């Protein structure tokens, strides 16, 4: 059964990576017409409704007690907090640079998991993370001297910590079906985001541009429902620190798509940085797991 579970996790990892790679570009298009918190609230509100419909068709039961509370907390940490910060940051950052900063999630997840006694410290995991982050920096050529406002940088780093803590926390929660966990989590996040949008005085309007509608449709179906169901499957099989390597591979997809659709500069550094990213993921997430098995 273990090889089958590993193959399923690897397939889920690859699918989530490809789908998530387009998310930041979709958010950039959404932000051009919709206020950030309002756009995020609409996205996760619609995704939650779609997931509850799937839940009903599959005849899955809603969690109760600690499982319900855990799903709500997971939703706040994995959707509500990080995406409110990420939507704000992507008003100012290109998708590639934004995903570069999120590539720090595996390192943050590892450190939080060790601090909370969930994982033993493995040198290979730290080495793999550092190699992969170096590759992301080469790919994106994100200069430290870039004129990025401090609140924007802090928002991106806050999203990193929130994603990381969610990946660590979910292993301590009662196991819930990925569809159910994401339905409840996105529903809780949507409530939080709608409240934040109201408090911020956002304009609650529907898009007028076709590009915005297409971006929202992608973010709801592929970027939320499919991506995070697959991501939660990977967490449940590999654990948070290894699953978080998705955030390191995603920038490769994000930079290519952003260069195609959002005019983000694309250079030959992609050919140098991509092998570093893949080596880092192999050393930190895949090789170490096989050795321990």
Low-confidence stretches: none
The average pLDDT value, as a whole number, equals 83
Quaternary structure type: single chain
What's the Cα radius of gyration? Answer: 18 Å
Share of residues in strands: under 5%
> Based on CA inertia axes, which overall geometry fits?
globular
Question: What portion of residues is helical?
Answer: over 70%
**Distance linking N and C termini:** 13 Å
Helix and strand pattern: HHHHHHHHHHHHH
The total number of structural domains is 1
Number of strands: 0
Strand count, sense and barrel status of the largest sheet are: none
Structural class category: mainly alpha
- List the total number of helices: 13
Structural commentary:
- The protein is mainly α and 293 residues long.
- The protein has one domain (2-292).
- Helices cover 78% and strands 0% of the residues.
- The chain is built from 13 helices and no strands.
- It has helices at 2-20, 23-31, 36-58, 65-89, 95-102, 105-115, 123-140, 150-169, 178-200, 210-238, 240-243, 246-261, 269-292.
- The longest helix is centred in the last third of the chain and has 29 residues, at 210-238.
- The mean pLDDT is 83.
- The chain crosses the membrane at residues 40-60, 67-90, 96-115, 124-144, 150-170, 182-201, 213-234, 243-261, 267-286.
